[in-house]
Design brief:
2 domains, mainly alpha
Amino acid sequence: MTLTQGALVLLSALVGGALNSVAGGGSFLTFPALLLCGVPPIQANATSTAALVPGSLASALAYRLTLRDRILVVLSLSSLVGGVLGALLLLRTPSAVFARLVPYLLLLATVLFAAGGPIGERLRARGPQASPVSLGASVPVQLAIAIYGGFFGGGIGILMLALLALLGAGDLHRMNAIKAFQAAIINGVALVTFVAAGVVHGPLALPMAIAAVVGGYGGARLARRLPVRLVRRFVILVGTAMTALFLLGQRPAGATVPRPAVSNSCRTRACQAGVPTEASAAPPESLLDRGGPARTPWLGERRGPARWECPQPGAGDEAV
């Protein structure tokens, strides 16, 4: 990684930490920045989570919730199990498949984040109301949210706020406190799973985490001067731009270049002339299958030198 790329990653963590302290959406910067610097998709997702978890934990601790809260306990158990399941699901997903999902995951997260503003205003205007949904019915819903959070996580905040509103969990301040606590659990157990699997980019995760904490502290001070609505618009603009960038740069799934059928002797001539044939090595299926960087389809980073073997002429082939 070059000095410029390292600076880009640290800057994304610094600004991402500031955004999370004001309005959320820090992963819209950290995750794409890691991808653009050549980090494979699954490693980029895990490293982005590692970079932003300290800020998430700090936010949860700041609310000083008590575990005697029944809603908190029930939802926390779902978050714990779902976060691990989501992280394991990500680790079992082939890198190429996850790479193709990235633009759509970014799009989903952007839409959820954009919906957060209007939903938050309605919740503030409505105030606490009686719960139309039982606590038991919320368990599978929170479990699904937590699985998505462990797998990718963009936009889980607004999903949890909507669920808490249905549960009648109290005013917006209390719902934000519960949301922050659940997000810390989901991201925390996902991070432990990623570290155990060895997919966190350690040399980047630690400086990014420090930058995110510094950015979060500065963002909290800056929040007094900037309107939250302006910050949210900036995050939505960034999310839309990142979604468009990766959608436009991604090759159509299943697109192949047709090759004419060639005989074994033709392959031999091409190989001796130094021309690659279809025998070039294929990229690894996932990060857990092989070591080394995986190819990101829209970025076309290094795959390493192409390798192929020259076939020997067999019976029936014309002489070379």
